[in-house]
């Protein structure tokens, strides 16, 4: 026996007549006897008027219920005198035969009885309502209170009656049955019948039957209806639960098993009672349907359970089964360790005891959780702790391996516990005094349950049988599950309080804008150091959760938790992570708390000195420079000083990662800061850094950076030249990778050319000097370098093309030909227009060009007199023909070019003498072939007459054919085109004159009826004007600027 759920009290002793049936009518007991009489018993304390048994209906049901409750409270096992019922009345001749069954319908004030037939009487007058004659010889009946249906079983027939509240029962239907009914009960609109060999469910509307399963071998069929549309069917000593369709409902939870085959079963939630041969057995209706109590009542023939109570009867005695108060049962169950049953009973406490119920459940959950934890059933224990009112810090004391943070709730908890312990030790022991009796047994139960708990609901680990490593890991896994369930609400509340505190601080700051600076600092410190309770609880929970996840090897979950919003305490977790070798998790913890410097120092130490850690990392390479770069890249708005400090070690060990760090940070670092840092630590990386900055961050490109990059390129090239010169391997025409970059930068970048020019050597790097001179618009010196120092006429010609194209982009197309231009179009820059004549002069006067270059080198300043100076051209002779350039894209439009004879005849004697002297002076070392090649390939871009004057006088005409032939052909074509255009324009002029004459021949007829389109008066003989559309107006109206003629003739 687990606990006492019922107390058996004998209320009728040694009846003189054999008892056949019993019924409860409020506080009264109706007994059907063997001789057909009906006896009415009542408690001795229940008095009625004049000693009459009757209970007037007019007194009201409320009074009856109140007296019933009072009677039940007075019935206790210890007061035997009060427990006996007194015979109040006897109805002789109530029935002709023994009353074998009866039911009291409390709500309808009716009594249904079965003797020779089924009869219905009123209460309390016992007037006959109906005597069902067809039920004569019936064996049993079943009443459905909800629908007012009565089913009577007689032999192999069923008779259905309906009671509609009037004075009679109406027969509804008669249904055949396969065999004699041994037991039956209503289930909705159906009846569950226990016949000789099986159970069937019959639909009372259609008459259809469904077989459920066979009955037992030894015991008779037994059908009991439950309150939840379920049925309990007996099969020998087994009770099977089925629904109204006959399907098993508790197949996964087992069946109800009795000690022996019961003779009858009643339901009194949450228990079921079975009438056995030697006792009444009480079992729980909750799986696994355990034994609750055995009541030592032998030879019980009747067992009745109604809303009025429980009654058991033998042939001559009747016992009242009084339920023990729920609170007392809870205490008994909790004391015996049946916590689940105790919790289930707590739910049956009345609603008015909600506070008491909550206190009981809380105390039981705590005790049960402690018990399960000691039994090493950690998951179930944590579930009960979660259902209790225990705070998180108390639960975490069960886990000594968890290091808690130093926050207020932990500190206050420790102080409170120590204070209570000291007070309990110092309190003198009071003498025992008689305490007042509690108002109810439930209060005693609450005190009993709570008195078994430790003071202040504290928990302690099982020191007598501590868990081993495996069990500790399982316990921490249960803690992880518990914490994850609670975390959502705790974090949400903490974040809400943080938001409220931030808003309050902003409002306070706005209201105290005039507070002194010292007071402001004090207010800020107070607001920062004060933590709310919700935030402290979140810190404790996240700190414990992280440590539990690490201890249970849930590293992925720990990293995910640390990567999101969390409140884990660094001080509490740091030592645990270092001791366990959880370095990635520690880095993430530093990062989420914005402790970036310790994180980077840890990465550096892991890479350089992994042996200094208690648990060396398995793979130190994963914590090297790449890890530092990745960490810094993941930050937003990182401090520049932090990056500079961390990059020093990376520069020494892995310069590529350092450059990647400088380039990929978002937002990028100031280039000036990075260059200064590189100059102090790794100067050779400056050039590579600037290249990547200009490639990946063009918005940072500036003149200073381009100047710096060009200077770095030049320094590297000068260093290479010095090394190769010392080895005798320097070649001016060979281009190393750095020199190619320098030339590309000189060609495309924006930089200070004069500053770079000053660093160039006098006897080398001519190509770079040519780029610089060209950038300074000293084209003659640049061409001198290409022609006479580098001896590369093709590059000199390419230089001229580049200058010409940059000055006149509209004249050039992708096919290296001139695009057609309107007459008069030419390059706006004179130096660009004469660039080819300058190259021709450099070819034909080499010594003068070299001397000029030497003078510019000596003074480091170009001679302006020789820069971009066009050769003087003698005036044109009268009579030369102008070449009309009409084709779009021609260069020298309208430029007069003399024929060879005109040029020769037009030269004066002084000019001829000058040319002769020029040819004589420069005939030595001139580049005539290159000059002739220039004339033949670029004839359309230079002044042919001037070029001819610059050639030596001994130049043969045969050599000039490639130059003169296309030039003359172009001139002749232009002349012919001009003549065609002239004729076309003359024809167009004649056509216009003809149209004008036709227009003047138009005639307008003015009649006497013709009116002015403006004033609408007759024109008559007045002077008039005619518009082109034929509209006539007075001349006066025509002269008026405000007048407008009407449309139409």
From TrEMBL:
Residues 422-431 have a biased composition (Acidic residues). It holds the Pfam family zf-Vps39_C. Coiled coil: none annotated. Keywords: Cytoplasm, Protein transport, Transport. InterPro entries: Clathrin_H-chain/VPS_repeat, CNH_dom, Vam6/VPS39/TRAP1, VPS39/TGF_beta_rcpt-assoc_1, VPS39/TGFA1_Znf. Residues 16-310 form the CNH domain. Transmembrane segments: none annotated. CHCR repeats lie at residues 661-828. It is found in: Cytoplasm. Residues 52-77, 420-469, 897-918 are annotated as: Disordered. Residues 449-463 have a biased composition (Polar residues). PROSITE patterns: CHCR, CNH. This is CNH domain-containing protein. It comes from Sphagnum jensenii. The lineage of its organism: Eukaryota, Viridiplantae, Streptophyta, Embryophyta, Bryophyta.
